[in-house]
Amino acid sequence: MIRGSLLGIIWMICCVCTSLQQETTFVYNGFDQGDHRIHLDGGARILRKNDVLQLTNETTTQIGRAFFEQPIEFKPSEPVSFSTHFVCALVRVGDVSGHGMAFFVSHSTDFVGAEPTRFFGLFNANGAASTRVLAVELDISKAPDVLDISDNHVGIDVNSAKSVKAENASYFSDREGRKVDMNLLSGDPIQVWVDYVGTTLNVSIAPLENQKPSRPLLSSPSINLTEIVQGRRMFVGFSGATGSIMVNQYLLGWSFSKSMASLQKIDISKLPKVPHPSNKNKSSSTVRNALLGLIAFLVLGLVFGAYMYRRNLYAEVREEWEKEYGPLRYSYKSLYKATKGFSRDEFLGKGGFGEVYKGTLPRNIELREVAVKKVSHEGEHGMKQFVSEIVCMRSLKHRSLVPLLGYCRRKHELILVSEYMPNGSLDHYLFNHDRPTLPWPRRFAILKDIALALSYLHTEADQVVIHRDIKASNVMLDAEFNGRLGDFGMSRLYDRGTDPSTTAAVGTIGYMAPELTTMGPSTVTDVYAFGVFLLEITCGRRPVEAGFSAAKRFLVQWVGERWRRSSLLDVVDPRLTEFSSWEVERVLKVGLLCANLAPEARPSMEQVVQYLNGNLALPEFWPYSPGIGVLTPTAFSQAQLMVPSLSLSSSSSNNSMFITHSLLYGSGR
Fold first, then answer.
1. Which residues bind ATP per the record (predicted)?
2. Which of 260, 295, 311 corresponds to the end of one domain?
3. Are residues 96 and 236 in the same domain?
4. Are residues 452 and 552 in the same domain?
5. Dihedrals phi, psi of 82, to nearest 5 degrees
6. I need a labelling partner for 313 at 20 to 30 A (CA). Which of 37, 43, 275, 504 fits?
């Protein structure tokens, strides 16, 4: 019985190994309709008669794609490489040649925005709109706007139909010792090999009866596939499009593997024949009737398409439970027009959870500039909670907060509208040396602005608000360079006199209070982060700088050590040429006091405001006072120290109410 069980286990292991091998190495000598591992999209189909995979049929403006259904995945220990060999044929339909086809590697199979024209169904005039793509094109049309070299060439494309490298179709004949030209549109089968090892991509082609040439047609030595597919997984397949002129694009066989050594050979003898259209003479009346019918169909299609386009362009999602939030809701039509159709000219940047665009909305008799952010969402429950929390955040009224004006919902998108901050985020003026530095009086004024905002959140708002991610990149600057606290994506709201009731530890490395992991967030953890923020603005450097020496690496420790050496002013940003020594010294000491290792020793934000304004004397404490200028005992990994802006989070308890999306101006945590 034990022997039988062992044999069964061995058999199962063999089956699993075989399954895994099939997912990474496969070969098709013709295509079987019953094999569901090949996913067909658009006009792609498998012809019943001869098991040929056809990407597009004789229909204009059509896209056809065929790809291996499961993504090719690489373990961390594996190099990202692949080899493929396929046999294809491009067969002329009419007197005018159409468009070619492409083998592609991408991180997604969602090619939203790809045009059914000369861009192989992968790109549009601006490149790859929705996914990152590496493609090898067999192109039979010359498009000057993408710098095509001829109407018979092979090219390597990266996220755009403009090839990074291209050559006229040819192969190196080992027998003749020279290059031999090929006609891609001959209708004859063409062999194509694509090999990627390291960062080098080689492409070779040859007629069906030839072996693989010893010299590749194309070789590009600097392609980083992990950047293109954004990870260690990728989809592979073929794509073609017809545009206004057509050509039949056929695939006869395909072999693929993660490595060249394990690539299986295609059995040329088993490949199906290339279908060729029959040349039947049609009467002129039949052609005329078909043409008239086609014109009528196109006119009706255009009318219907224009109607559906206009109907869907401004379509929104509205549900019964949203009625109570009516005054906060903007129509999608108004936001679409305000941003000029979410034009790239109005693009401001990409935050933690979506893209931000500048918009202009009418307000009474004048125009109002706004920032419009598009984020994705899933699930009705999460959506209800999110909209409810937006309402809570909108109730916050303070001149030093970025005002949230409202929202809109459309399909799987949530659109947030906030007041536009024309001068961007504070960190750009601290760490981007292409911008002018902010003088000390302006920095000091910004510090006091944010201190007032936090004091309001902690003590004056209807509910206590813990921000939990205070840092320079979350401070926005209005037209007068006043500081505005934004990005409430990690904020926590709770009633006064109650416990926050959460074990979540979230924030950004360097700003997180040491007790976060054990006691959870509170107003004093915000005070700790604000203390680090005070030092950051005054010193002009981030809280953790991995490239610095051990003595200067951690900002809080470094400032404390300088104070202990009676050289506190040595830490001031060297770009500040004029400043008040009294103000700078007070700010640095308040920063160290707020960043005290002991939570009970930190001041409240109300006291911090008075300290900064000079209305309250600082308590007596010294460079060697307990908890002053001391590193947090929390041990960070080396990888975390290399990315000091990295944000950390853990799961919250069930009864915690978190704002799980960034409410505009996210810093890309």
1. 374
2. 260
3. yes
4. yes
5. -165, 160
6. 43
Q: What is d(CA 198, CA 183) in angstroms, rounded to the nearest whole number?
A: 31
Indicate whether 448 pLDDT > 80. Answer: yes
CA-to-CA dists, residue 613 to 349, 438, 447, 582, 590, angstroms:
35, 20, 11, 12, 11
41 is catalytic: no
User: Do 500 and 482 sit in the same domain of this protein?
Assistant: yes
Domain of 582, CATH number, reads 1.10.510.10
Q: Can you give the residue range of the structural domain that contains 328?
A: 320-419
Mean pLDDT of the region 385-395: 63
Mean pLDDT of the chain: 83
Residue list, annotated binding site for ATP:
374
One-letter amino acid identity for 407?
A: Y
395 and 498 both lie in a single domain? no
C-alpha span between 522 and 564 (Å, rounded): 30
Q: How many domains does the chain have?
A: 3
Q: Annotate 193-257 with three-state secondary structure.
A: EEEEECCEEEEEEEECCCCCCCCCCEEECCCCHHHHHCCCEEEEEEEEECCCCCEEEEEEEEEEE
Say what the pLDDT of residue 597 is.
94
pLDDT at 636 over 60: no
User: What's the pTM?
Assistant: 0.51
Residue 222 token pair: 């600097």
Binding residue numbers: 374
Mean pLDDT of 34-38: 81
Catalytic residue among 51, 427, 469, 526: 469
